[in-house]
Records
---
Amino acid sequence: MIKKHVPDYIQTLTPYPPGKPIEELERELGITGSIKLASNENPLGPSPKALAAIEKRTKDLHRYPDGSSYYLKERLSQHLGVGSDHLVIGNGSNEIIEFLIRLLVRVGDEVVMGDPSFIVYRLINQAVGGKNVIIPLKDWNFDLDAMKAAITDRTRLVFIDCPNNPVGTTVKQSDFARFMEGLPEHLLVVLDEAYQDFVTDTNAVNFFSFMDKGHTVISLRTFSKAYGLSGLRVGYGIAAPGIMSMLERVRQPFNINSLAQAAATAALDDEQFLQHTLSITREGLSYLYGQFEEMGLSYVPSQTNFVLVDVGRPANEVYQAMLREGVIVRSMASYGLKTYERITVGTMKENERFIRALKKVLDKG
Ligand SMILES: Cc1ncc(COP(=O)(O)O)c(C=O)c1O
């Protein structure tokens, strides 16, 4: 049996719970036309410019992709105002989390993270025998003092998802500056900015100001959210060239497929799509806040395209009842938030349908 060669830290890992395909859920429940507000995807679909770029590239599918993602890096470099030697491209930003851990973490090394925060950090770290040092949030924000106090000689990485998934809060520039002050240089601070495009708080952390000052930091970003390309899997990291040249060593050559490269490059030119996405998200959030307030439900004001709401009942039960109404949300019970759901902002029609279903399920109609 190969099992005897699989270390305990892998055998005890609880895999990421995949959602069922919508079609399968509908078949099981005997419903049709359900809506998915569960994975923080873009309800508008993919960027039309990205779709057009994909069509053009399909005739080259017999060729391997460009192993350096040259054009995507060039376009990103122009978009961000940094040299392309400051960039690494991943198969989703998830893959860059994997690069970071593969590069820096050996058995028994420590990685500091918040709780709740993005679940993938702890899964990937545990898979290589790293120790997860998990610091509870304080009032829905990272407890940066406690995270700093948890740093030891064995700490290799600190993950701060900013804004945080599943809470939706961001970190203030001044708080992050205080956190970075005097931090030992043997560790890398990861600002996971998957939802950065949605942030409206002008006091939120500005990653570039820290990279420019020579701090050991990396930002992770993605085309999965505001650009509507989750299915293609493209994310990127921004950091000093010295960090990037190390990450490039653990990246396999053809990690970004050619359609994904073409689509992501084109999506950066689709300003209209991005602005439309941001405006329906803001409109949707304010609608949801208003409805939650009318229903007497508390929620955490969000800097993202999702909102965490306390439904005041067991989260899994409400999730199941919502499913039967054809509305898929994300129960937060597995994050230890026993009465919370995380709702991705949809189109206004979807948001209204979600509220109707929630009122019915909670008997608040
Ligand atoms: C905080 C955070 N980081 C990273 C990701 C992963 O994004 P990607 O699709 O680029 O792998 C997500 C996706 O939900 C996320 O919420």
---
Amino acid sequence: MKKIYLIGIGPGNPDYLTVKAINTMKKVDVFFLLEKREKKGHEDLVKIRKEILKRYLDRGTYRVVTAKISERKKSGKLYKEGVKTWRGQKAEVITELIKSKMKDGENGAFLVWGDPSLYDGHLEILQHILKQGAVNFEYEVIPGITSVQILAEKHKIPLNRIGETIVITTGRKLKEYSPAEVINTVVLLDSYSTFKHFKDTDIDIYWGGYLGTDDEILLSGKLKDIIEDLKKIRKEAKKKKGWLMDTYILRQPEGSESNE
Ligand SMILES: C[S@@+](CC[C@H](N)C(=O)[O-])C[C@H]1O[C@@H](n2cnc3c(N)ncnc32)[C@H](O)[C@@H]1O
């Protein structure tokens, strides 16, 4: 039987790999690297994965197979449908890789950004492939450190204060929240500075771009006081590197009515 590992590698720095991830990598015969050709900065993300392999494994003990996948088209389709179609295409590529690039009894792996449980499609794709029945394999998840944890680490904050709720959401969903619903709201996947919807409130923000990497940028404070700086920093970072990954937490200040 073939076996696939989904190995969480942390959000951009080889220092954030767990011992379990490293020990699992040592058992892997073939690593699959998926390259999104059209996506700006994607080569940086592939480079980090190659650095991880070089740092932790002996040369000649594993194979690397790269495959091109297309970027998700932001078509007129509904968001969920668009993602489903794109994942379907990715599933076809992965099926073919497992079928043709692994021998029976071998271990294969995908190096998953951050942790496979957080806004990542690999698990659902593997489950979809097994359901389709075109190829058979076992699979295992190796957890990784998420961008959310690095955000908390770098700002030296817990994600909640005593007994409070934590919500993890996307920029797309954040638009639907009222200020009173924002207690500890962690936001990922926000290309549009959606925090601007809360600029007239008393909410605090803890923001991090390129967390854990050499280009890391941190900013925190009362949103209404730093919003212009934040918008500028995001714009300049995108221009300089061609891409930006950022995560932030919006938080009611201590003692405000909504968090009691
Ligand atoms: C598709 S999600 C993947 C999340 C990942 N599985 C994790 O555990 O962090 C991508 C989003 O994660 C966040 N992210 C990932 N890496 C990051 C980093 N190094 N710094 C800041 N945010 C990051 C950004 O919000 C980005 O849009």
---
Amino acid sequence: MSAVAVKKREAEKAKRMLKHEGIYDGKRRPRVEGDFVLLPVLDVKRALELGFEIRDVELPMRPERQIYKNLESVLKEKLTEEELTFLRRYDVVGDIAIIQIPPELESKKDLIVEGLLKVHPFLKVIARRGFHRGTFRVREYEVIWGDERLTTIHRENGIKLKIDLSRVFFNPRMKGERYRLANLVRNGEKILIPFAGILPYALVIARYKNVDITAVELNKDAVKLGLENIEMNRKHLKGRIELIVGDAFEVLPELGTYDRVISPTPRGVDALKLVLSKADKFLHYYDFIHESRIEEFKNYIINECNNYGKTCDVRIKRVSDFKPHVYKICADISIRKS
Ligand SMILES: C[S@@+](CC[C@H](N)C(=O)[O-])C[C@H]1O[C@@H](n2cnc3c(N)ncnc32)[C@H](O)[C@@H]1O
């Protein structure tokens, strides 16, 4: 087997030339010998024509690397089509994968873990997802592989978020929604975000816009992480965030009004009147609505606006599927004072 011998300082240039000629053997590893680097080549005759010195050496093969794009492609020979549909909707938060494994796939758990690690080799924890519980909407999890922890650093939309999934709510699927809102916001706005959690909405908006945000959150663990998240991102933020600890239903009546209010409302809570009373120009109100009730919900908002002496344009955006025929929606409300 042949290689060209070049001085160390000329190695990069030589490698580029060999690649350009199509005679560099990328399947083998180069080797350093004294002041020289031995670069594997496919065509000795051409290398000689180019003026390279040739050596006869045994250069080792690089290990075969397979790139796996998704869990489906890794497991398609091991699971049925129906089984694969159960596994499609998993999430990755930082270095934690969160997956729902139905009882009928329990016996395939090890295969699923192996598949996830092939697709996301950086994972340190794989956890099984339970349900959201209580006022703070924290999910239940069971670690099924890796470190016994549910804390991580997650990156999205140019910010970093410290998260403890065992203590706070976080939904990585709202990444696009947060970016959408950050695009709608204009510099100079005063914004109110009740139900603010660990501040994903506030931070993404403040990352891109020069605004003043007041956030309100009841869960003390979320508040602690929220404050850490402000510090962790501070040097990249264009806007300012003030975080108030407390019950939105007690805190908001004490506050003034804002250009824009964003309400990532906890499921089952009706905060429409509360947040509408605080919004001067725009309100983004999240809720869970059956598809047959979307028009009714829109009219309910328009009536509530009228009760506050406001005229509103309401657009209902379906943000994600929640369960069959029920959507997580965002009501984008533009307020024109009447
Ligand atoms: C659906 S989560 C949204 C959290 C965050 N905005 C996010 O998107 O990650 C609702 C949040 O409201 C908080 N919460 C629930 N009731 C509250 C209340 N009465 N006042 C303030 N925050 C409340 C919960 O602790 C939780 O963090």
